[in-house]
Amino acid sequence: MKTLLETIKDAESRGVAVGHFNISDMAALKAIVKAATDLQFPVVIGLSEGERNFFGVEEAALIIRNLREKHGLPVYLNADHAYSLESIKQVVEAGFDSVIFDGAKLSLEENIAKTREVVQYVKSVNPGILVEAELGYIGTSSELFTETPAGAAIKEKDLTTVEDAVRFVKETGIDMFAPAVGNIHGMSISIPNPDLNISRIKSIKDAVQIPLVLHGGSGIKDTDFISAAGAGMPLIHINTEIRLAWKEALQKSLTDNPNEVAPYKLLKPSEEAVYEATYKRIKLFAKL
Amino acid sequence: MKTLLETIKDAESRGVAVGHFNISDMAALKAIVKAATDLQFPVVIGLSEGERNFFGVEEAALIIRNLREKHGLPVYLNADHAYSLESIKQVVEAGFDSVIFDGAKLSLEENIAKTREVVQYVKSVNPGILVEAELGYIGTSSELFTETPAGAAIKEKDLTTVEDAVRFVKETGIDMFAPAVGNIHGMSISIPNPDLNISRIKSIKDAVQIPLVLHGGSGIKDTDFISAAGAGMPLIHINTEIRLAWKEALQKSLTDNPNEVAPYKLLKPSEEAVYEATYKRIKLFAKL
C-alpha cells in the first residue's frame, strides 16, 4: 500500500489529482469509499474540526485504518483545517495521515512561526504524517453564499505570491501547500466561481517544488480542475458540493416518505447522492 | 470491566433493566453513549440487519470496542435480529457481544432446530458471545402504525406459553430469551400499546431461569417497564421512540436552517433529541 505522500506524488507525476472529500456522517463516508473503490482510485477523506467533533476523531481513524489495513483500500484521512496545536495533537495521536494547520487569518510572520511549531511536533511523533498549510485568505466556510466572502482573494494582486510561497514553505518545512489562486471556500449560488489563475499555480509550483493543494473546489469549472492538476495541484478539496447533494437528497427522502422513521432508510438517498457527486469528481480529477 | 452477561445478571439481581437502543448513524450512537456515560449505567447498542448494512458491521464493532477498551465505558454491541447464519457469522467475526437469531416466523420445530445450530456455531467461535432468540410473533418493524400488526400476539391465548418457553430454551441452549408477553414491535400513533402480562413474564422466568428480554419497548407504559424488569426482564429494547426523536429533530433543523448544508450542524439537534429520549429511558429502567 502506498503512503499518502507516494499517492499524491504519483498523481502529480501523471498530471492528475486525488480528490479530498469531507464527511460528517457514515452515509457520506461509505459513499465516498464506494465511489473510489468502484473507480479503483485513491481518495482522501477529510474532517474539519466541526466534522471531527461530531463524527469522532478516534472513530474516523479506526474506520479508515480498517478499510486500508484489512480491506486494502487506498483511503486516507486528513484533519481538514485545525486551528490549534491541541486539535492537531488529537488527530496525530489517533493516527490521521495528514493535518492542515490553518493560520490563514494570521500575519505571515505568525503563520510561519505557528506552522513551523506544528511541523516540528507532528514530525517528532511520526515523520510519515503530512503537514499542509494554507497561505492567503480564501474564506472559511463550506456553505452556499450569494456574494464573495469579504477578504477572499479573487483579484490577481490578492493571490498568494511566489515570493511569499517560497519563504513560507522553506521556513515552515511543510509537506504540502495550499495557495490562494482564485479559489474560494464554499460555493456560490448566484455568481460563477472565479477562474483559477493557472499561471500563478505553475509559478508557485516551480518555485516551491512540494505538492500544491486546491481548496474550495466546489463550483470551479471542470476545465480549471484539469488545468490546476496539470500545473502541480495533485490534491483537490470538495466539500460544499457533497454537502448540498447530501442535504437535497435527504429533504426529498423525508418528503417522499412521511411515515418512515428509520434513519438508515431516510439517509440512503443521501448516500447515493454523495456517491454520484463523488464518483463524477474522482473520475474527472483522475482523468479516468 | 463486566461482560455483557455479568452486566445483565447484575441488573436482574437488582430488579432493574439495561436499555438496548438501536442506531443507524453516528449521531444516535454518540447520543446514547453520552446518556449512559452521564448516568454511569451500562447500555447495549443494537443494530438490525438494515442498520448494520448501512452503518457497517466492522465499523460498529471497532467503535464499541474502542469505547470499552480504551475509554472504559460499559457499552455493549448486539446484532438485533439476524435471520441467517451468514449474517450471524459476520457479526461474530467482527466481535459483537451478542446476537439475536430471529426465527419467530418459523414453526416451533424449525425455530428450535435453526436456533440450536446458531448457538452451536457462536459458542464454537467464542463462548462469551451471547445468543438470544425470540418465540412468538410480535411484529417485525420498528415503525409507526395505526393498527396492530396482523398476527402480533396481544391476547392472552397468543402469548408465549411457559411450556413452549421451557422446551425452546432447553433444546436450543440460548443465553437470553425474548417471549411474546403483550409487547409489539413498533409504536402505535392512534391506539395505546397493549399492557404487558407481568404474571406470564414471572411464570416464564421462573421456569426458564435465563434472563428474559423485552422487545418492542417503544410505547409501553412506564409502570409496565418497571414491573417487567422486576419480574425478570433485565434487558429492554427501545427503537421506534429513538427513531422518531431523531427524525422530528432533523425535520425541525432543516426547516429552521434553510441555508445550512453541513450535515453535522443539521444533525446536531437529532443527536440532542436521541440523548434526551435515551437518558429518560436509562434512568427509568435503572431506577436512578
How is this structure best summarized?
The structure is a homodimer of 288-residue chains. By secondary structure, chain A is α/β, with parallel strands linked by helices. Chain A has twelve helices and ten strands.
Strand content of chain A: 5-15%
Low-confidence stretches of chain A: none
Structural class of chain A: alpha/beta
Order of helices and strands of chain A: HEHEHHEHEHEEHEEHEHEHHH
Looking at the overall shape, the CATH architecture of chain A is: Alpha-Beta Barrel
Rounded mean pLDDT of chain A is 92
CATH fold annotation of chain A: TIM Barrel
Q: What is the CA–CA distance across the termini of chain A? A: 21 Å
Q: Kindly report the name of the CATH homologous superfamily of chain A.
A: Aldolase class I
Largest interface: A-B, 41 and 41 residues
The order of strands across the largest sheet of chain A is 7-5-4-3-2-1-10-9
Helix content of chain A: 40-55%
| Shape assignment of chain A | globular
Largest sheet of chain A: 8 strands, parallel
| Multimerization status | homodimer
Describe the structure.
The structure is a homodimer of 288-residue chains. Chain A is of the alpha/beta class and 288 residues long. Chain A has one domain: TIM Barrel (Alpha-Beta Barrel). Chain A has helices spanning 4-13, 26-39, 49-55, 57-69, 85-94, 108-125, 162-172, 198-208, 222-230, 240-256, 263-266, 268-285; strands at residues 18-22, 43-47, 75-82, 98-101, 130-135, 144-145, 176-179, 187-188, 213-214, 235-238. In chain A, helix 2 (26-39) packs parallel to helix 12, helix 6 packs parallel to helix 7 (162-172) and helix 10 runs antiparallel to helix 12 (268-285). Chains A and B meet through helix 2, helix 3, helix 4, helix 10 and helix 11 of A and helix 2, helix 3, helix 4, helix 10 and helix 11 of B.
